[in-house]
Amino acid sequence: MKRRTILIDFAGATTHFTRQLEAALKDANLTKTRSISIRPGVGNTKSLVLTLWNSFIRLASIPINYIVLLIDIVTCLPNQIFIFNIPLIPSVETFFLWIIRVNGAVSVGILHNHIPSHGEKKPIRNYRYFEFYNYCDIVVFHDSSISEIFQSIFPNAVPLYTSLPSYSVPNASDNKTQKIMDSEIIKLGFMGTIRPYKNLEIISSEFKLLNKSQLSFLSLKITGKAFYDIDNMVRIFENIGFYEFVYNGELISDEKFFKEMSEYDFLLLPHANSSGSALLSVAASLGVPVIASNLTVFTDFVHRFGNGVIFDHLITGDLHRVVSKLIEDKILREKLKVNALRAVSSVPTWSNYVNDIFECCNELVTRRVQ
């Protein structure tokens, strides 16, 4: 059953995910799919005036887009689908969910992390976070460990566990062919916005345990806008003794983002929570192996496709152990690269992802009629 779908993006932290989902919805739907962006992306500028202006624009856009969304909800047809990607003000959006339910439409919440704001103290963002998802008709999640606790935290919602899809990357085939080229230097990369819960500190502390000979085989590049002071950490990285270290704190275009990731031998995902799941999907679409923490969303993926190695981010020295083994074992490195390239065609597509959502919505509508 095809029906008009509205995708609501409340947070800019999953921009790549939202764009891919929107494109897949438009391809799958016979009727028009519309996207409402509640909060524009963060502008890349060092000017205080422009920064303040961008902040004003972002704040002003919130009530305007809420009004647009409210009109769509009030005038919606029965069984119309509203997909919410992360709430910005859960206490407000929960009210929208109530109206959707009264009108007989279907609400779908994408749960990227069951920990509000990834553990950061954001009162407005965190207040009634669980109530928001519990009031959704369907909650989509990608972390299998949530299945065990789903009913206890979201008893009123229908669970939909589905695998993360492979991202559609322009010129991906051209980038993937680069991975068969051999080099003695192992290129490591850390990408995305830099926040405390992404555990960049663990890389600096663990890599300091490597000896000079090992470090001479490693190149590290960190790309991403930092949302806290990391100047001291950058200086530590500069003095560790890598073959090469580069830090780029500027935002880059999607094209450059994908191209840069494709040049890495391994993508580092030391995250303390599942905020790195989107990066994992991008790496999978490019055939880039990962070095990831032992979060369930990472572990399940790597065990299924063999496209990386897992370390325990709570055990001191475990990342050092994993990296040391990769430096010493060239055959293992090549095996992981081959597995990562092979996995490109095996990872579920966005079409699979959207079909799973539509099937769940159809089942829900059928039960309502009965």
Automatic annotation (TrEMBL):
<dbReference type="Pfam" id="PF00534">
    <property type="entry name" value="Glycos_transf_1"/>
</dbReference>
<dbReference type="InterPro" id="IPR001296">
    <property type="entry name" value="Glyco_trans_1"/>
</dbReference>
<feature type="domain" description="Glycosyl transferase family 1">
    <location>
        <begin position="186"/>
        <end position="340"/>
    </location>
</feature>
<dbReference type="GO" id="GO:0016757">
    <property type="term" value="F:glycosyltransferase activity"/>
</dbReference>
<protein>
    <recommendedName>
        <fullName>Glycosyl transferase family 1 domain-containing protein</fullName>
    </recommendedName>
</protein>
